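Q: I'm teaching a short session on how sequence maps to structure, and I want students to see two examples side by side rather than one. Could you give me a first protein with its sequence written out and its structure tokens following it? Keep the formatting plain so it prints cleanly on a handout.
A: Of course. Example one:
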Amino acid sequence: MTNAENPVDRERLSAIVKAYDVRGIVGDALTEQSVEALAAAFVDEVGAAGGKVVVGHDMRDSSPVFAEAFARGATSRGADVVAIGLCSTDESYYASGILNAPAAMFTASHNPAAYNGIKFSRAGAQGISLDTGLAAIRDRAGDYLEQGVTPVAAPGTVQPLDVLADYAAYLRSLVDLTGIRPLKIVVDAGNGMGGLTVPAVLGTAAGLPELPLEIVPLYFELDGTFPNHEANPLEPANLVDLQKAVVEHGADLGLAFDGDADRCFVVDERGGAVTPSAVAAIVAVREIARVAALGESDVNVIHNLITSRFVPETIEAAGANPVRTRVGHSLIKDRMKETGAVFGGEHSAHYYFRDFWGADNGMLAAMHVLAEFGAQQAPLSELADRFTPYALSGEINSVVDDVPSAYTRVVEAFTGRGDFDELDGLTVFGTTAEDEPFWWFNVRPSNTEPLLRLNVEGADAATMTVVRDEVLALIRS
């Protein structure tokens, strides 16, 4: 991973620094050398010399080595590293929040085994994007690659810290599951970090009292080669094993976590996927009611522009203010802080909580669903149907040779047929008569690939299908 024969240069480093994190193929531009440089640059950017930096990692084969390389770079610039070891991404956010220290988490999330990466946080689990410091880290790391890292006179230290038990206890303090009816749950950890955190939070592995939950584990063995399926539940093919197991075990529901366990997807008792928008609406109602009972008024809840129309409708009906944003976890963390929002939900199953330093936590969202579902007797499919009145296409990616031309074809075809919004890509809200079913769609170019991403919603399945097929034909023609 040092790649001494082909050292990383500034250009290759820039290729792995994405909009919100660092992500690349291990041994290419992502090497111990580049990680040390990024670590030194991170310490400089966040002013961590003389203070603490949290470093955690997932179960990928390269992650422990990279975490050690990061510690070398960080301590050389004067930071004291708090090494929390194997953890989920939201566990690293917990450590960043509770210690009020910047953090680096080594994971490539749902990407295949050949990849790894770094998710950075400022102190208090605040996000970092290209616009808010990541570009500066990239540029300074480029300098260090060319000139070498200059060690400070008083280098930092490395101290291990196990935060899993405290993390689990903290989540339990936010959502009380002790009084729900007994539930049987199949959990697919995808050989990712959910295999560590689920037994701690929902079970007794961290020494917490037993909950009225029977957990049927699926792929809990930590294995960064992902021998069973990719740890990306957003892809329907990766939910098949969970859906089958829920039905076979007669379970009440299923949960699927991605590789670093910061996202959670829900499956009902029939094996049907519950949309992230439905989960966002369910959690939003609970969080709004909770703070309203404490006397809070003028409550804000964030949703990105691709969630179902039902999400802002639900937020308004619950007496709160929906705040519409662009897609992107660092951006939404910033908006959580700016607006004081109690909760935020994305179509990609990232869920953000004010009580979790504005950071995303899939486990916490899952606990809210369990609490809501376990407080009543109806099957989950019935609860989910109430929060899914409209038809969503899900995100459809198309490889396009000429993205601008495809984008232009869509604009020309729908000019005069709807209202245009360019907050994030192009959103078209259909101009319809009062007795006609509504529709909207969003087309966004990928920042890193020759892709166009399409999301469509209609008042019913027939309307959504017609719009989806027309836009896809324009994109792919």
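Q: Perfect. Now a second example for contrast.
A: Example two:
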Amino acid sequence: MSTTATAFDPQTLEGLLTDGGKVLTAPDDLAAYGCDWTRIYDPAPLAVVLPKSTEEVQAIVRYANEQHMALVPSGGRTGLSAGAVAANGEMVVAMDRMNRILDFNANDRLVQCEAGVVTEQLQQYADEQGLYYPVDFASAGSSELGGNIATNAGGIKVIRYGMTRDWVLGLKVVTGAGEILELNNGLEKNNTGYDLRQLFIGGEGTLGFITEATMKLARQPSNLTVMVLGLNDLSNTMDVLQSFRSKLDLTAYEFFSNEAIAHVQAHAEVPRPFETECPYYALLEFEATSEGVMEEAMALFEHCVEQEWVVDGVISQSEGQAEKLWQLRERISESIAPHTPYKNDLSVRISRVPEFLNEIHSVVSKEYPDFEIIWYGHIGDGNLHLNILKPADMEKQEFFKRCETVNDLVFEIVQRYEGSVSAEHGVGMVKKKYLGFTKSAEEIAVMKGIKKVFDPNGIMNPGKLIDSD
């Protein structure tokens, strides 16, 4: 759906915003709010509206229905699948001004937030209460809670704490029909039929807009300790994981290639963890709650060395050193960003990761002999990030076109391994035409039917996730 044929009057819309919302139409604002971190599509929104309340969001949605106007949600605009890109004359609904923490209950360990609360803001608030919000990723300083929920964001702690979905105990949403729904009300147990909350988690704003969320918090972890291990072979990642998980409860298990470290070093001057250069590295994090835990960790390390799975390693001796070791993993994305990476965000069952990665790597290396390929990811939960870097002398559109020609080959492998074409970044526009590699035609038909119920006029983030019939 496009708004280009609709007579849009900013003053009429502003008149509906009675709680202090704003409408922006300046070219710089349109460019800033109409995009996310993908660079494939050029932003071309009609206008940007920044509501201040759920009621204002409801007024915007009702106005859009009357005017047959498409709406695109916008949070921190850190998405990687063009789920928040307005490329076809849509009106952007940005949640930046709905950024309050509304309520907290220590007994329930629940915090009620507006959708524009930044992830790091929620993490810091939890810390002030002596608690912990564990969903964490590189964009925590700018991503917003509503967007995290709409894409069911994952990140670096999934192996222990799960996805965003696991921390949402209530939602307030405005549907595409302009109805306000309050879902689950913060209950841990609520066995009363369909859990509509779950449809909006990961729904990418195609059913309606999330305006508030009730999030549960956890106890704070104690003495988080990091090990970085150099591996002989990719298959050793699973050997090491199985060995450590047999004795320790890991809070993170990440991997990255030697090529990834090279980019981090060049970009951020982060030192190598140790002198030995290895083809792959694993980063483990765990709670060292006693001397016994540390002794167990060192015994496991020695066992892995004896088995020739691990070549070298380092363990943090302080919180500061742990943070420095984490930079090896967390700064990969920013270090390769100047190279306009074409990203694939894939997942399979954990046990199948090495075989799967080797098969994918063989295909992309053959098809892209002149492109640099960077691997990293949350290997402890089966999530791999494939990044293909653009040569400096190649035009962006030519590069993206060449990358897309191999997608079918890659996703056929994903399908054969019964994996996902999008582990945590969402589908948006980038992955929409490949959805059938993960979901059956019957599933997609049901999804379209659900969208029709919540968004009868097809105004909510059209062209993302699925096409309306």
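Q: What should students look for in example two?
A: Point them to this: The chain has four domains: 10-97, 101-219, 224-333, 340-438. Also worth mentioning: The two ends are 12 Å apart (CA to CA).
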